[in-house]
Structures are given as structure tokens and as C-alpha cells.
Specification:
Layout: E1 5-10, H1 17-29, E2 34-41, E3 56-61, H2 67-75, H3 79-106, E4 111-114, H4 117-126, E5 131-136, H5 144-153, E6 159-162, H6 165-172, E7 178-179, E8 200-204, H7 213-226, E9 231-235, H8 241-250, E10 257-261, H9 265-272, E11 277-280, H10 289-295, E12 301-304, E13 320-323, H11 328-339, H12 342-356, H13 361-374
Parallel strand pairs: 1-2, 1-4, 2-3, 4-5, 5-6, 6-7, 8-9, 8-11, 9-10, 11-12, 12-13
Helix pairs in contact: 2-3, 3-4, 4-5, 7-11, 10-12
Length: about 375
């Protein structure tokens, strides 16, 4: 295989689904190629997820986005603080844009992979002579403005690689570049499974409005009234954490909901090994890597089908449940059904483990390396 130089442009290397996928992709590609990650922001001293030492990491700025602080100031009507945060945000955005343009102009890689739609247009403008791959992680959620934005950002790109099969099929009919679907993957299939004998529901992911976590809190509050052993683990952090914690205090849910914050891989594993059901209530998901990670521990999953990406992972009634129409009563009923029936949980958990094996590191690695090998150098 001819070795190529590959640059992956990322927003940051902190916690998040895109960031986890970016780290994994870099680890895959560096086995055969020279790989660098160009990260705009340096939000932590070291990347949140493991990255092979072969991968070069270049940070463009140590400025940190302050969106959370700006929104909190507005919410609390601290106008002076909001003004100051707004000025800082403007400085961050201007620096981000100028540093990104400079890095793209100076990039001498054979292949450039963009991880954000917002990067595409700039990369396409300044690197017309390179092989350009747009790696699309977002689901359009039937928003025509986003569909148009993505379509218009692909000028001079060679490939669009959506993270789900459904998105690849959808965009293949409306964009002028070739669509290739390569699924996301988990690092390994763990040998150990959850015992499934605990009345614990777990959510892992960002705390953001589109994740619908207030719905999950309401469902688990009622579930706890039916079975007082049921609790909810929330693993993650994000812009909505403050409002979620306020909701917990307001409705006195401290004994029902455990807010873990961000946990490392080992700590998250401990939570999952004591989980009976994994649940997400997202309004939309492009793929749902956290579902596969939960399934790899033999945990049945429950999700609203508004999370489109979950449809490629959860086989309704086999390894979990897909709840239509964001019906909270139906999700509650399925959670209670699973908690009251260990044999059902166990059967679905076994099927979940088998499903996770389809998204193994080795399978995805093979597809990416074959794809890159076919590209011109």
C-alpha cells in the first residue's frame, strides 16, 4: 500500500461523539499512513480519548469557546457579563477563522478529511488540488436549510462520507460528489457483560437540548414511583448541565438521578457493568455510537425513533425498543417491562452483544484502509 499523508481537521479533541470518532479514525489510518490532526481549539492539556503516538497533533489556538458562559449570562440577565462574554466570543471566532485559513493554505497533505460542515467551504476554496473528503456526522433532521448548507459546502470535494447508511443513501441522490458509507465503530468488544440484575438506567453523552434529557428525567421519575429501586445514571457534561441540575433540585430527584459528569473509559465501564437498560431520548441522532458501546456490554437499549441513527442499531423487539412519536408513556411502559422481566432483558442483551460485533474496530478499519488505498496519491 502506498503511504499517503492525511490531515484530519477537527474543532477540538475534548469529549464528544465526533471527537471520539476522530480519535479512532486517526488511530486506524496511522497504521498505514502519515496522519495529523489539525485541531482548532485546545480545550484540555491532552486529548480526551486515546490517540496513537504516531499521530501528529497540531493545535491552532489555545483560546477556548465560551458559548456556555455567554448563554448562562444571558439566561441570568447579567448584561454586563453577557456583553464581555460576547466580545470574547467574537475574538475567538475571528481567531478561529483566520487560523483555520492559514492552516489550510499551508497544508501539504495528499488527503484532507473535514469533520465539520462549517470547515468544508474554506477547505474547498483553498485546496482544490487535493483529495478532499467531507466526513458528515450530523443528521439533517429534515431541516432544508442544513441540507442546502451541506450541499453548497461540497464544491471541489471528491467524497462525502456520512456516518450512517441512511444518510449516505439520502445524500447520494442530491449532492454532486460520490457518497461512501463507512460506519463508526467501537474500540473493542469487551469480554465482560453487564449482569443486568440492577435496576439502573444509564445515559451517556453530551448534555444538550437536542438530547431530550428532561424527557428522560420525567420518565425515570415516574418509573421510580412504580419501582423505587430504579435510578438513572447520567454520564457526560455539556451546555445544558446547569438547567438539568436545576430541574433535579426543583423536583427533588437527587435520590433518583446520579449526575456523574464526564468519566474516563474505565469509570464509564463500571457504570455500564451495573446497568440494566441503556436509554436515549434524543430529538435526533446521526448514528448513535453510545448505543453500540452499551450493546457491547450486553445491555438492551431503548430510544425514541426521532433519533434516526438509532434505527440502524436497534432492532425493535430484538435487542431493544424503538419508541415512535416521542411517546413518553410508551417508553415508560417498555422500561418497566424490561425491569420486571430478567429473562427478556437477558435475551435482548445477548442480541445486543451480537449486534455490536457488526461495528467492530477491525471491520471499520478494513473499510477505511481499502477506501484510502483506492484514492490517488
Amino acid at each position: 500500500m502506498e503511504k499517503k499523508k492525511i490531515s484530519i481537521f477537527a474543532l477540538h479533541l475534548g469529549f464528544g461523539g465526533i471527537e471520539k470518532a476522530t480519535s479512532t479514525l486517526a488511530n486506524i489510518l496511522c497504521e498505514e499512513h502519515d496522519v495529523e490532526i489539525v485541531s482548532i481549539y485546545k480545550v484540555y492539556e491532552k486529548p480526551a480519548f486515546y490517540i496513537n503516538d504516531k499521530v501528529k497533533i497540531k493545535y491552532l489556538t489555545e483560546l477556548i469557546p465560551n458559548k456556555k458562559e455567554f448563554l448562562e449570562a444571558l439566561e441570568k440577565m447579567h448584561l454586563i457579563k453577557a456583553f464581555k462574554e460576547g466580545m470574547t466570543a467574537t475574538k475567538v471566532l475571528i481567531t478561529k477563522h483566520s487560523k483555520l485559513i492559514k492552516a489550510i493554505k499551508e497544508c501539504d497533505s495528499d488527503i484532507i478529511i473535514s469533520t465539520r460542515c462549517t470547515f468544508n467551504k474554506i477547505i474547498g476554496k483553498y485546496k482544490k488540488d487535493k483529495i478532499l473528503i467531507a466526513w458528515e456526522h450530523m443528521h439533517h433532521n429534515n431541516k432544508q436549510w442544513y441540507i442546502n448548507k451541506l450541499k453548497n459546502s461540497l464544491e471541489n470535494f471528491n467524497y462525502l462520507v456520512p456516518v450512517s447508511k441512511a444518510l449516505a443513501e439520502y445524500y447520494s441522490n442530491i449532492v454532486d460528489v460520490k457518497c461512501v458509507n463507512i460506519p463508526l465503530c467501537i474500540d473493542k468488544i469487551p469480554e465482560e457483560n453487564s449482569s443486568l440484575d440492577r435496576y439502573q438506567i444509564t445515559y451517556v453523552g453530551r448534555l444538550a437540548q437536542e438530547k431530550g434529557l428532561l424527557d428522560l428525567l420525567q420518565i425515570c421519575e415516574i418509573a421510580n414511583r412504580i419501582n423505587q429501586h430504579i435510578i438513572l445514571n447520567v454520564v457526560g457534561d455539556g451546555i445544558q448541565r446547569t438547567s438539568i441540575e436545576q430541574h433535579i433540585r426543583q423536583f427533588k430527584l437527587e435520590e433518583i438521578v446520579k449526575m456523574h459528569g464526564y468519566l474516563n473509559k474505565e469509570e464509564t465501564e463500571k457504570v455500564l457493568l451495573n446497568t440494566g437498560i441503556f436509554a436515549i431520548t434524543s430529538f435526533y441522532e446521526s448514528f448513535g455510537l453510545v448505543l453500540i458501546e452499551a450493546m457491547s456490554y450486553g445491555i438492551p437499549c431503548v430510544a425514541f425513533d426521532s433519533a434516526e441513527g438509532a434505527k440502524e442499531i436497534i432492532d425493535d423487539g430484538v435487542n431493544g425498543y424503538l419508541i415512535p412519536n416521542r411517546d413518553k408513556s410508551e417508553m415508560l411502559a417498555k422500561i418497566i417491562e424490561l425491569h420486571e422481566n430478567y429473562d427478556l432483558r437477558s435475551k435482548m442483551g445477548e442480541a445486543a452483544k451480537e449486534k455490536a460485533k457488526q461495528f467492530s474496530y477491525e471491520n471499520t478499519k478494513k473499510k477505511w484502509l481499502e477506501f484510502i488505498e483506492k484514492l490517488g496519491g
